[in-house]
């Protein structure tokens, strides 16, 4: 019943932009924390961003600050990750994950700690 579906990935040249989407069904964004992760071949999964909707709080890992922006559209029950100035090292499968959270002041962290639901991922490839 609960689903997270990522979309928006693709092939792009260095310096280009993409907007990834995470469509949520089965629960409302008002009572959840959403994180974006990425995993490149041969590398560990890396948390890149998160949003605590009720707290109005967002966070990013250092390597993406200034280039990545996380946002939400409550009417569409969708979380977005806007990626600007893409670099080859951004190439990875990008996943969204959700944790049900009712606390107004919950402060999320890009890497977790744990999640109730995961999407299947969308591929981002940055190449000249």
Structure explained in plain terms:
0% of the residues lie in helices and 49% in strands. The relative contact order is 0.33. The chain is globular. It has no helices and eleven strands. With 128 residues, it is mainly β. The model has no long low-confidence stretch (mean pLDDT 94).
Primary descriptors:
mainly beta; 128 residues; 11 strands; four-stranded antiparallel beta sheet
Alpha carbon gyration radius: 14 Å
Mean model confidence by pLDDT: 94
Give the N-to-C terminal Cα separation: 40 Å
Low-confidence stretches: none
Annotation, overall tally of beta strands: 11
Most strands sheet = 7 strands, mixed
State which percent range the strand residues make up.
over 45%
The coarse silhouette is globular
SSE order: EEEEEEEEEEE
SS-derived structural category: mainly beta
Number of helices: 0
Secondary structure: helix percent:
under 10%
Architecture blueprint of SSEs:
Blueprint: E1 3-7, E2 10-12, E3 18-25, E4 32-39, E5 46-52, E6 57-60, E7 68-73, E8 78-83, E9 92-100, E10 117-118, E11 122-126
Parallel strand pairs: 2-11
Antiparallel strand pairs: 1-3, 3-8, 4-5, 4-9, 5-6, 7-8, 9-10, 9-11
């Amino acid at each position: 019943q609960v689903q997270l579906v990522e979309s928006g990935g693709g092939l792009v040249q260095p310096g280009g932009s993409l907007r990834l989407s995470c469509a949520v069904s089965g629960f409302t964004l008002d009572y959840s924390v959403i994180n974006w992760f990425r995993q490149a071949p041969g590398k560990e999964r890396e948390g890149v961003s998160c949003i605590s909707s009720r707290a109005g709080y967002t966070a990013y890992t250092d390597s993406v600050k200034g280039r990545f922006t996380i946002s939400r559209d409550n009417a569409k029950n969708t979380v977005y990750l806007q990626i600007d100035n893409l670099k080859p090292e951004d190439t990875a499968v990008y996943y969204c994950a959700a944790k049900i959270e009712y606390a107004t002041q919950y402060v999320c962290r890009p890497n977790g700690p744990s999640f109730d639901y995961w999407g299947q991922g969308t591929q981002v490839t940055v190449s000249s």
